[in-house]
Design goal:
It is a single chain. The protein has 167 residues and is mainly α. It contains six helices and no strands.
Amino acid sequence: MNALRRVWEHFEEGFIAFLLAAMTLITFVYVILNNFYTLFYWLGDTFGGNETLLAIGDFILDMAQAMTWSNALTKALFGWLIFFGLAYGVRTAGHIGVDALVKLAPRGIQRVIGVIACLCCLGYAGLIAVGSFDWVRTLFIAGIGAEDLGHYGVQQWHIGMIVPFGY
């Protein structure tokens, strides 16, 4: 059981790193392509309308315009990062605790407040998990494609299924 827990922990950390790296790489390439073609247009105009440089600028511009999916994919990866990171943060106690008032109470009262707080959080997580499961089920039945990713076969429920999974 201990080995399974370690495998899951490594998977979580690796998946979070993958999501961050993918978001960064996609955004970097998109920004570079959207700003790099102007250099070739400027060079082409500077060197008397050099057709080769202008053609390179056109090629880069076409590649940038073909990446309309990059913003949608980055948003989807960010959503996955939020809910996967939320589960990871709660499991590793990486969340922010605000307990200044609780520390003023006697030890026994602190435990009661802690139990009540945990029950409230579990109840909230349960409500969100059930509600989001119904939401994802509805998206699955509707079969709606994701924004700018639908023509690649990605549907909205593929992106939204992290919500019940994260909770």
